[in-house]
Amino acid sequence: MTTPQEFVETALATSSADGCVVLVEEHSETNLRWATNSLTTNGQMRSRTVTVISLFDKSGGTSAGVVSRSITNEDELASLVRASEQAGRDADPADDAAPLVENYAHADDWNADPATTDVAVLQDFAAGLGAEFRSWQARDQLLFGFAEHHLTSTFLGTSTGLRRRFDQPDGRIEINGKSRDYARSAYVGRHTNDFGDIDIAAVAAELDQRLGWAAKRIDLDAGRYETILPPMAVADLMVYAYWTASARDADEGRNVYAGKLGSRLSQLPVRLFSDPAYPELGCSPFVTAVSNFGGMTSIFDNGQQVAPVDWIRDGVLTDLARPRAWAAKTGAQPRPLVENLVLDAGGTASVDELVARTERGLLLTCLWYIREVDPQTLLLTGLTRDGVYLVEDGSVRGAVTNFRFNESPIDLLGRATEAGRTEHAMSREWGDYFRRSAMPALRIPDFNMSTVSQAS
Amino acid sequence: MPDIDAAFLALPARELAGAALSRATELGASHADFRLERIRTANLSVRDGHLESSTDSEDVGLAVRVVHDGAWGFASGIVRTASAAAELAERAVEIAKVSRGLSARPVELAPEPVYSDVTWVSSYEIDPFTVPIADRVGRLVELSERLMSADGVDHVDAQLTHVLENKFYADTAGTMTTQQRVRLEPVFTAVNVDRAANQFSSMRTIAPPVGRGWEYLTGTGWDFDAEIAELPELLREHVKAPSVEAGHYDLVIHPSNLWLTIHESIGHATELDRALGYEAAYAGTSFATLDRLNDLRYGSPVMNVVGDRTVEHGLATIGWDDEGVATRQFDIVRDGTLVGYQLNRQMAHDNAGTFGGDRSNGCAFADSPGHIPLQRMANVSLQPAEDGPSTEELIARVERGIYVVGDRSWSIDMQRFNFQFTGQQFWRIEDGKLAGQLRDVAYQATTTDFWGSMEAVGGPETYVLGGAFNCGKGQPGQVAPVSHGCPSALFRNVNVLNTVAEGGR
A414, A266 in Cβ contact below 8 A? Predict the structure, then answer.
């Protein structure tokens, strides 16, 4: 079997392009899914994607051919290299062209075998889950959910001599507990690198506590309420805000950040930042781009070092994502998107402590089906899901109806009056795409619960 | 009918299937199926007339699914040798054994006739991958430049996604299918920026994604030249349009908007796996529970909805599904009453008593070789009235209302009750006539109230097949293409929000 490192070297050696980048992603994953206390689907998957980027200097700039294939042998690699060259030769000069990243020193173990995962990583979890199925069945309550673990080893080589590799572990559990009649529902979601930190019994106990809170049902009308957004719900909102943080769109006057660089977004000492070395949320310290994402990443930037970056500091918007080409055009610093996001507003309180000092307000669990209504203000709509609790005099009194909200995360930063301590929190809405985030709870004095949803 | 791509036919599908299925049988599987798939996807994006991104990716892989001792097992990989295929069968059986202890009910499948060695190809003329990349980009640039040259257009985004999908399927009953589909989705967006006011507005084309080939961009099935020519004036009018006054309005909804409301509030709500709770932790459940079959008043008596995986150019159209079931058309809502669900073979078997028959209607689909088939959406479509009114006649029936064109944002709750949609164009209706555009409009309703307020559906000449490439469902997440046809339709007294007011401004 050809190794990923050999695929990289062979593709670079046989490329006749003026510049070439090769990315090999070796991917393995395993998962379990269950509903009504019973397993429904499962799987073990392996895949390999090889992307060859062929660059050609021509009048008017540099063109790029970007072709990806599931490669299994050297013959297929040879035809991939030819296809990439053909695409590059035929293409018009690229708008985001920049010189390839030059070689630099780093400590990657290039020669090590790719890391893989398999169903064994889920074995202890599955055993614990089986025990919970029996216990929940006995109490006439239902468990639904999903557990998965991924490992992706990425090998990057460039015709400028750079060789980098990164192994990204990535796992999660999502567990939903319901009463037999589906009227009460609670949810816990967690990101994990290796399942060593997942305590299924503790998760089940948390679900049980929340279903207990929901034993009393209170009807409330739509309206503006003091609301505690727990870290998961803050992640739902901030991840979307992050994805729209394009410097180019802002420079062109066509996103919510236009004209706001250097402006105060929050009265709280908010720091929104990304750091590839953040504990347990580690991500690639160099750019790996197989396509251009929303004008914020560029295939020309492959291999660029990813430095820690503050997007918001002391409540002031300090930076936006920009590839090197746009940075050069505008005289700004390049800022690659980073695969993690942390919001810290200096708070130290747990969610329980925020609840304890609430006279009357709502405590949410998470948000769902979030979509952009108005890009001008980044107004988003969506639903509350799996538990909206009424807090009075510092204690949870019961569960209220779900609501549809209309809110902008940028406005919410401006209106938040208190932040809790920052903890690992995976967005439920965007967890398929972005899991490495840490967020505080936020207290919003007037969250817009626009209409009532009958969903439970 | 175009030929199935020779490069796909050259893959050793039969040999791999034979190795996998015989190994699964040796290991005691009561059912096994094998898929070899190749999915080629190209994404082109042009920004302000300049090529921003062009990618061409191909996913080739094989998958084995088994029922072993009453439990599912699934494994997939990329190595295309007989021994690797047999090993996938072993892994699938191994994971079925792990699953057995966690599974409450043994898996049984509804019967289906055997289709031995059959082929199917979707209806298109030109595979876009055979068109030189320079010509594909050239067409996007040409149309972008026409938009850019218009007054009031400051930026233009153009995107084209096109897919060539090949599926080979074989199972232990003897069914063997080889299929090919082509689809594409072109989108052009014009943006106006008012620097002085720090305001921006945009409008995009309403051309739907379709199961057609390159001919779609050159005049077959849609007139892009005409739509591009009209867009700048529509945008200019949108920019200066007054903000809507929130309240209740009668709505005439064009198919370019209504398809998405159908998708969310009917399509997903009548997936039986949702109604049974299999998606409860993720996509959600459905208010249209199985005990309400033949009883639930879904909407007004003019409401008739079918599921269909056979309509020409439909994005969910195919010959046989990923369980070897021949596709068909079936009723979901008849005269306003819920009468059917979308099914796969396991659910058809398990609920045969309720449905009075144990036949799947062919809605199992996996988006890639790496994923297990789920119950996925058919083309779910609202039927027009045979001699129904034109869109203008529907508008003429409205004293004070809004005519809604094009989809934009969409959101619905996890039981498919409460939804909120925006659009591309909103036209004020006064005394039966259009009276200029409005902006900042969202309409919001509860599903059965909304469909209950549908007073009339338009005639066949108002019918358009809309759709999307990106319907998400399942964990791990799967993305499927699906079409929804509908006529224009008239709804009375719908809640309309002003989105600027909703944002607290």
Answer: yes
Q: Crossing angle for the helix pair B82-100 and B13-26, nearest 10 degrees?
A: 40
DSSP of B293-310: TTT-B-S-TT--EEEES-
Encoding tokens for residue B95?
């994971």
Interface of B with A in 138-157 (CB under 8 A): 141, 154-155
CATH topology of domain A4-210: PmbA/TldD fold (3.30.2290)
Whether B407 has a pLDDT exceeding 80, the answer reads yes
Is residue B1 situated within a structural domain? Answer: no
Geometric angle at alpha carbon B347, from B346 and B350, rounded to 5°: 90
Task: Clarify whether residues B225 and B258 are in a common domain.
Answer: no
Chain A, window 306-345: residues with a beta carbon less than 8 angstroms from a chain B beta carbon: none
Burial string for A226-239 (b: 16+ CB within 10 Å, else e) reads bbbbbbbbbbbbbb
Q: Of the candidates A253, A153, A224, which has an alpha carbon nearest to the alpha carbon of residue B504?
A: A224
Residue ranges of B 200-219 with Cβ closer than 8 A to chain A:
200-202
Angle between helical axes of A74-90 and A4-14 (0-180°, round to 10)? 50
- As given in the structure block, the two tokens for residue A81 are 């290299």
Q: Does residue B258 share a domain with residue B129?
A: no
Q: Which residues of chain B does A29 touch, with a Cβ-Cβ cutoff of 8 Å?
A: 476
Residues A335 and A269: beta-carbon distance below 8 Å = no
Pair B203, B231: CB distance under 8 Å:
yes
Q: Is the dihedral of CA B257, B262, B263, B269 positive or negative?
A: positive
pLDDT tens digit string along B207-258? 999 999 999 999 999 999 999 999 999 999 999 999 999 999 999 999 999 9
Regarding whether B279 and B208 lie in a shared domain, the answer is: no
DSSP A344-379: E-S----HHHHHHT-SEEEEEEEEEEEEEEETTTTE
CA A370-A373-A379 angle, 5° bins: 80
Dump pLDDT digits (tens) for B28-40: 999 999 999 999 9
Query: Where a domain ends, among B239, B273, B303?
Result: B239
- A119-125 average pLDDT score: 91
Residues of B in contact with A72 (CB under 8 A): 78-80
- Tell me, yes or no, whether B109 and B197 share the same domain: yes
Question: At residue B92, what is the residue type?
Answer: A
Would residue B269 count as lying in a domain? Answer: yes
Claim: this prediction has a pTM higher than 0.90: yes
Torsion on CA atoms A200, A203, A207, A213, rounded to nearest 10: 140
CB of B298 within 8 Å of a chain A CB? The answer is no
The angle, 0 to 180 degrees and rounded to 10, between the axes of the packed helices B224-239 and B133-148 is: 30
Q: Is B196 on the interface with A (CB under 8 A)?
A: no
Residue type, A90: D
Longest dimension (CA), chain A: 73
Chain B residues near residue A130 by CB distance under 8 angstroms? 101-102
Q: Are B97 and B48 in a shared domain?
A: yes
Q: Is B83 on the interface with A (CB under 8 A)?
A: no
- Which of B190, B220, B239 terminates a domain? The answer is B239
Q: Which domain holds residue B69?
A: 6-239
Taking the CA of residue B386 and the nearest CA in chain A, the distance in Å comes to: 35
Mean predicted lDDT score pLDDT of chain B = 97
A38 touches chain B (CB under 8 A): yes
The letter for the amino acid at A75 is D
